[in-house]
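User: Sequence recovery, please. Input:
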């Protein structure tokens, strides 16, 4: 593995949370970021090689994606990749806007780009992402997690190549689980019962904390609850709503009831996103927490955590008759439909998604591989023991609604679900939301 000179940069928040408004962006003509960062002149050759460009949000660990690009350039003499560094995912709106502006120009720059999983359908429907079916076969695609692969498809075609992933998961206090049952609960009912017991014994102020803020993360929490009850937000073809179905209504009702009936969650969760809920858990106030993988290293840091060595993590619970579901996050690779160097672009992006690079990203960035086999890797098991336990979580990864209208869909979901959680008229609000979604995607 290539050694680097970079100092580790600690990630202090989730890297996938996105809220975008494409209409507002296009109306303003795009951010200056796109013009200044991506709009550089393009050369056809670099030292006798085919030159292409790669644009990606900045993820930091013990190295950067620029180091990965350097390694590719040094590994062969056919293709030279120019790295166009975008802001980190915490500024995902700017990342999205910069990509949209450049791809819409149709000049082929960037040739390859990384994209949040929820952008894939929109990029493909707009004709900006090239279908990759000519480059892949079943033997290759079978090496990725099914959930990630499904999220990389639009209209039956593979329009993105799986790269790295993150998913929602359930954190628990190992000491309190041992005291109040001994076995990590697998159903929502079991979790609620155990959390309530810990509350009543005075061992935890709250049984369960999650994210109910009217934001993208609320959609993530809802996707998990609904899918774990064999429900869905949209139909499989993405052209009609299912959030008015009984399974979805029951799931949202449960989230409401954690606050109002079961009283294992504080009403404050309705204003919380990831960090406030994480802080409550690492302060030792809650028995269970739904959150993302970034929480683990913070929970083990004695300078900020009161629960060091008392935390476990695993798949989220499910309803009776259902199965655990975790919202899929992460960034995947796309090829510009207007690139003039398809073979060079594919050589680079397939190299970036290969097992060796995914392993390097797992070890040096702490980002989950999209290849199940890497979770059996001895070095990952030794150096990233927490990640090595996440295979069953990633196996249950579920995509958010796959639709080119996602920007409109997510805003409708955030508003409709938030109303239901506040006023308690869950069935009424979900029926109204279903009609609204039908109008958007139908």
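Assistant: Recovered sequence (442 residues):
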């Amino acid at each position: 593995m290539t050694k680097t000179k970079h100092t580790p940069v600690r990630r202090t928040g989730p890297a996938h949370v996105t809220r975008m408004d494409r209409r507002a962006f296009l109306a303003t003509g795009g951010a200056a970021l796109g013009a200044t960062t991506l709009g550089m002149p393009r050369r056809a050759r670099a030292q006798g090689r085919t030159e292409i460009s790669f644009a990606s949000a900045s993820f930091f660990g013990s190295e950067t994606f620029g180091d990965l690009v350097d390694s590719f350039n040094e590994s062969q003499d056919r293709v030279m990749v120019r790295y166009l560094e975008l802001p980190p995912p915490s500024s995902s709106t700017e990342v999205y806007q910069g990509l949209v502006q450049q791809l819409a120009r149709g000049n082929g720059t960037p040739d390859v780009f990384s994209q949040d999983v929820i952008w894939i359908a929109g990029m493909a429907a707009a004709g900006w992402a090239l279908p990759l079916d000519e480059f892949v076969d079943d033997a290759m695609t079978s090496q990725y997690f099914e959930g990630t692969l499904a999220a990389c498809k639009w209209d039956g075609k593979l329009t993105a190549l799986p790269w790295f992933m993150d998913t929602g998961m359930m954190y628990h206090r190992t000491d309190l689980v041992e005291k109040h049952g001994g076995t990590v609960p697998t159903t929502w009912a079991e979790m609620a019962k155990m959390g309530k017991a810990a509350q009543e014994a005075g061992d935890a102020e709250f049984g369960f904390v999650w994210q109910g803020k009217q934001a993208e993360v609320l959609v993530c929490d809802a996707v998990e609850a609904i899918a774990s009850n064999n429900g869905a937000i949209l139909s499989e073809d993405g052209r009609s709503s299912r959030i008015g179905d009984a399974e979805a209504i029951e799931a949202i009702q449960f989230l409401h009831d954690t606050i109002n009936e079961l009283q294992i969650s504080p009403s404050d969760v309705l204003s919380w996103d990831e960090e406030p809920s994480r802080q409550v858990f690492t302060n030792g106030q809650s028995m269970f927490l739904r959150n993302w993988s970034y929480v683990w290293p913070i929970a083990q840091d004695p300078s900020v955590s009161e629960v060091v060595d008392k935390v476990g993590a695993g798949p989220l619970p499910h309803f009776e008759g259902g199965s655990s579901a975790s919202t899929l996050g992460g960034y995947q690779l796309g090829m510009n439909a207007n690139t003039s160097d398809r073979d060079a672009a594919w050589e680079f992006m397939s190299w970036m998604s290969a097992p060796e690079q995914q392993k390097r990203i797992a070890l040096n960035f702490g980002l989950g591989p999209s290849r199940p086999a890497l979770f059996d890797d001895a070095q990952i098991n030794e150096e990233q023991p927490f990640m090595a336990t996440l295979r069953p979580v990633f196996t249950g990864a579920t995509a958010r609604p796959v639709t080119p209208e996602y920007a409109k869909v997510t805003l409708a979901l955030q508003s409709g679900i938030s109303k239901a959680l506040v006023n308690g008229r869950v069935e009424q609000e979900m029926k109204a939301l279903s009609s609204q979604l039908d109008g958007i995607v139908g």
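Residues 1-12, 15-45 have pLDDT under 50 and may be disordered.
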